[in-house]
Amino acid sequence: MLTSKFAGVVAALALALTACGSGGGGTSTGSSAAPDAGATIEIGSLYEPQNLDNTAGGGQGVTEAFNGNVYEGLFRLTDAGKVEDLLAESHEVSDDGLTYTFRIRQGVTFHSGKALTAADVKNSIERVVAEDSQSARKSNLEVIKSVEAPDDRTVVVKLSDRSISLTYNLSYVWIVNTAAKDLATGEDGTGPYRLEAWKRGSTLSLEPFPGYWGAKPANGGVVFHYFTEATALNNALLTGAVDIVTSQQSPDALSQFTGNPDYKISDGHSTTKLLLAFNDRKAPFDKPEVRRAVAAAIDDAKLLESVWAGHGSLIGSMVPPTDPWYEDLTSLDAYDVEAARKQLAEAGYAGGFRFTLDTPNYDPHPTAATFIKGELAKVGITVDINVITADEWYTKVYKNRDFAATLQEHVNDRDVVWYGDPDFYWGYDDKQVTGWIEQAERARTAEEQTELLKKANRRIAEEAASDWLYLYPQIVVASSKLSGYPVNGLNSQFYAYGIKKG
Amino acid sequence: MRGRFTFLAGCVLVGLILVVAAVSLVWLPYDPADTSGGRLAPPGGAHLLGTDKLGRDLLTQLMVGARIALTVGIGSVLVGGLLGVAGGLIAGFATRWLDDALSAVLDILIAFPTLLLAMLVVAAREASLGSAILAIGLAMSGVVARLTRILVKRVLAQDYITAARTSGTSWPRVVAEHVLPNIWPTLLVNLSLQLGLAVLAEASLSYLGLGPPPPNASWGRLLQEAQATVLTSPTGAIAPGVLLVVLVVGVNLVADGFRDLADPTRRRTR
After folding, report:
1. Shortest CA gap B123–chain A (Å)
2. Is the minimum CB–CB distance between B234 and chain A shorter than 8 Å?
3. Does B126 contact chain A (CB < 8 Å)?
4. Of A311, A372, B109, B172, which one's alpha carbon is 20 to 30 angstroms from that of B156?
């Protein structure tokens, strides 16, 4: 989903943002020949894990390789963005919404042979919320007050406040054997595959786990081949060294595969949004009129066409179509240079102004910055482009909030909630929005939550809290012999057990 | 007269780029920020060399790029030349421990990779044309200083220096009348070679995103931006590459030709 260069920022964002996952659509349909259940699937990726522990900064690579494949959670987030029971057989919620009782599936064993018990679940949740945990989920699970395991099959989670997203957030909590040692280079999960070998800098191979409690994988194992460079990755696909590439970063590489019957290109939904994020605390961007004027002065459609050549889609706010509270708000942010000029004049900036745009040094940010500079010059605004590295962005913009405006891609689904936090880097502070987002998390039903988040989302769009430039496409290219692979990428997850070859 | 031929060939190539840069000051086919050309339009028609991803005219970008390449090349030679010759003169006159110390400093400066030095300068300042010139100039000054030092020492060992000194000529006059006239041909050849290297160094910096920030159309940046589209639209990568080669080869030919012309011993042996 992201280029190799952006792994740094993704990691940086993941540290603090609620991370991840969503989708829409389904899995691809396959070819007619009889699949070979013993075939090994060769997967090409740009995201090698830093280590194998997702509570110790393993990065998006370990999520891609291990989520759902090697480790399982109490719940699974499907490629279509739905939350399903996995290691939890069922669960009950108390009337006040503060006590969740989970029934743990029986007959599940870890790869080491030990049976899964409620104590392992308790321990796994506690690992993620622990002091030294670097999990991207940590802040979402802060609402957990205590985890108890009254018997081997029951886990009781007590919350300090209602949290309707708890099951969704638990889909990212790996259930790990309490007795397991050295999770940074090894594993002990309950998934359909176990780790066969990890050759750093090259491959990570998974073999089917014979003692798996559920359906057997549709293949005889998978090997992730890691590349540092997209061209080399595509060449590997062309020569048959890999069967599938988890995500394409440039539309121009696709021409090698279009019209070739040996390959199939899937255009799925990503949740990655390119943002022109204003510092809403500081003049001139503390005025909604100025922000709206800037948004109206930029032709998002043309930028999307420049970067993605017909792929991807426009969005009018932070919510991608795969989030339950999506609403088409692109009309609020429509391209209209005249309206932009008028609004600037009303805000007292008839003569324009000058600002510095902090631009991460990897694609597509410099391209977008160049384009924005040209567009805003037409309404009298001068943009000084300041190119910075991902690390500098994290320190200067994210931590010190020392910026006027910045470009950044936000990879997570369900991340509109960050507009409810006035301390977030963009500093959007609206009492109503904060209130709605807080209430939404405490909602009794999903409908109530959706309603509130829609309200908040509409409000931030009307105020142009940021300018949402476009939504990235999620493009998967695979050999046409392959079927059953996930097409939405779900912000780094890549379920491999359904992939068939032949 | 091989020396003269290479010199002329070099002048033609460098002159070509100089003319392009000069023309870009008064006339450009399009506004550099004009994005109306459509994504990756092929060469021909309204856009002689086609357009880039954003729809900007490639020829316009290349012409602006010529200006940047020459500015950085000449600017860093000025910085490197001034610092290097000044440092080299001091080191050339120094004796004993001061000479040893200066030599050590120069050796360290030369051992430092240009790109690493440039990154440090960019980190301390910001990514800009000025930073690029300063960084490349600094890296260059070590090489120039070491060469100057050796040349100065060689001249100072001559009998006529001793004669000049005993007849009461002051050190500044010795430098002006005896040292500089004897070392400048060699220095000039070296500085022109350094100019070619500086142009390449700037392209590398821009390629890495450490050069002048976008939308400055440095050739290195154009190469970097064209990398992803090299299969579908090769002109975007080929054109800046060719111009880089033309300028660097041209500068080197001028330097070679100049050396052959300026050095009487070389002329005689041919």
Report:
1. 9
2. no
3. yes
4. B109
Environment class of A38 (CB within 10 Å of its CB; exposed 0-12, middle 13-18, buried 19+)? exposed
Query: Which residue of chain B comes nearest to A376, CA vs CA?
Result: B33
Q: Per-residue DSSP letters for A375-389? A: HHHTTT-EEEEEEE-
CA distance A125 to chain B (A): 41
Task: Please tell me the pTM assigned to this model.
Answer: 0.80
Q: What is the pLDDT of residues A425-478, one digit of tens each?
A: 999 999 999 999 999 999 988 899 999 999 999 999 999 999 999 999 888 999
ipTM of the complex: 0.80
Tell me which fold the domain B2-24+58-268 belongs to. Answer: MetI-like fold (1.10.3720)
For residue B220, what are its two tokens? Answer: 């290195």
What does the pLDDT look like over A133-188, one tens digit per residue?
877 778 888 899 999 999 999 999 999 999 999 999 999 899 999 999 889 899 99
Q: What six digits make up the tokens of A246?
A: 């988890």
Q: Does B229 touch chain A (CB under 8 A)?
A: yes
Per CB-CB distance under 8 Å, the chain A contacts of B209 are: 361-362, 366, 387
A349 assigned to some structural domain: yes
The answer to whether residue A173 sits within a structural domain is no
A71: in domain: no
The answer, for B181 touching chain A at a CB cutoff of 8 Å, is no
Q: DSSP label at A40? A: P
Q: Does residue A19 register a pLDDT over 80?
A: no
Q: What DSSP letter does each residue of chain B carry, written as one string?
A: -HHHHHHHHHHHHHHHHHHHHHHHHH--SS-TT--TT-TTPPSBTTBTT-B-TT--BHHHHHHHHHHHHHHHHHHHHHHHHHHHHHHHHHHHH--HHHHHHHHHHHHHHHHS-HHHHHHHHHHHS-SSHHHHHHHHHHHHHHHHHHHHHHHHHHHHTSHHHHHHHHTT--HHHHIIIIIHHHHHHHHHHHHHHHHHHHHHHHHHHHHTT-SSPTT---HHHHHHHHGGGTTT-THHHHHHHHHHHHHHHHHHHHHHHHHHHH-HHHHHH-
What letter would DSSP give residue A393? I
- How do the domains of chain B map onto residue ranges? 2-24+58-268
